[in-house]
Amino acid sequence: MNSRSSRVGARLAQVVLVATSWALFGVGQGMSAEEEPPLPKSPDEALRLEASMALPITSFYDTPKTLRTSRPGSLLRREAATEYSLPTGATAMRILYHSKDAAGGDVAASAVVLAPEGKTPATGGWPVIVFAHGTSGVARECAPSAMRDLQYGSMGLFGFLKAGFAVIVLDYHGLGTQSPHQYINKVAQAHDAIYAVPAAREAVPALGPRWVIDGHSQGGLAAWGVAEEEAELKDPNYLGAVAVAAATLHDGWLAAHPDSTKDSGFYLAWLAYGIHAGFPQFQPSEMLTPAGAAHYNEIVTRGCWFYADVLYRGIDAPDMVTPNWSRNVWVQKFFAENRAGVRPIQGPLFAIAGESDTAVPLDAVHDVVGRACRNKQQIYFRSYPGLDHDRTMTESVAAQIGWITDRFAGRSVPSNCSDD
User: Which of 22, 19, 24 is nearest to 220 (CA)?
Assistant: First the structure.
């Protein structure tokens, strides 16, 4: 490759990494106009751009007949994967496993198990981080396992490997696999995380038994969900949760934060899809205006962030939804079931927020942390001045690793609830 094409390739990679590091309501926040890569100008251009760093959705992801005869947590398929852009010496195993949706229905889910460079620890195997990603879209091709950098390669994911952890990178069912993706559903994504652990251990025996959950944005809500589920499961090998810029939204969120989805109204179309996936009685037409529904079918069946952005560019969130959308009985039920900080949790939880995050605003995180503290949950909270949604993830990785390392070392667990 000559120097000119190298620069073009690097520029394209930068654009694609932004595309694959999108996060709930906050792609590219905080960048100056000079730093922001150019956005595609047409749907076709957006699809080509997303395809340039994509991997195919093969028959590996199809639901096998053995789903019906297996138990949650069972490994259904595995295959070694060499297509990812990983740190030197790291290895990847793609897995398909038996999970459950929010209502307890049997579904197949996919993930990638990453092992770091070096020899497996002589005792205990690799310590495990289950990583739950932020919003990628709702179509099958939006699975992180179908992206060469696993969506978060440029946002700190590989730092966990370099620190000596194995990482189970979740897709969530419906991304990659054939079930509808229950978008921003705390219970559904918690199930996908919990049931990935035994399946990953079967696929990669070098994994140790002890694990933590770490998630950003949509995945931050998943981390809360895992902590709540573990209060009932009481897995002795579960050590705690990290929730970064967790999407702990509520039914009054849009009215309280009307700028959160400015020029990104398509997230409301994805939200309508997620509510319908969890509650089939709900119809997206009950929530979306004609402008909101205009490209609904396209963005829930093909393409990911760039494609949705092009199709809905210039349509703000308030224009996407009907005036009383949040009063719909199924919308109310959805938000009630996804409320965090109410149910008991197992183990400690490290909650992280960016003080300049307009996607998941600081006061929204304060609300859930305060509620959890009042409910006597073990929370350590830290906020970062000047950081927006994505940078809160990338620039807190060292703190995340430090907190997680302490959990595996059995050190005392910090809590600053009294300071909140």
Answer: 24
**Cβ distance 58 to 146 under 8 Å?**
no
Of residues 315, 317, 334, 323, the one with CA closest to residue 103: 334
Question: In this structure, are residues 167 and 157 in contact, taking their beta carbons and an 8 Å threshold?
Answer: yes
pLDDT over 90 at 265, yes or no: no
Residues whose CB is less than 8 angstroms from the CB of residue 190 and which lie 6 or more positions away in sequence, other chains included: 222, 225, 226, 228, 229
Distance of CA 55 to the CA centre of its chain: 19
Q: What are the structure tokens assigned to 165, written together? A: 């952890």
Rounded Cα distance, 10 and 20, in Å: 15
Instruction: Find the domain containing 92 and state its range.
Output: 1-420
Q: Is the pTM higher than 0.85?
A: yes
Q: Tell me how many domains the chain contains.
A: 1
Which CATH number do you get for residue 61? 3.40.50.1820
Q: pLDDT tens across 285-337, in order?
A: 999 999 999 999 999 999 999 999 999 998 888 899 999 999 999 999 999 99
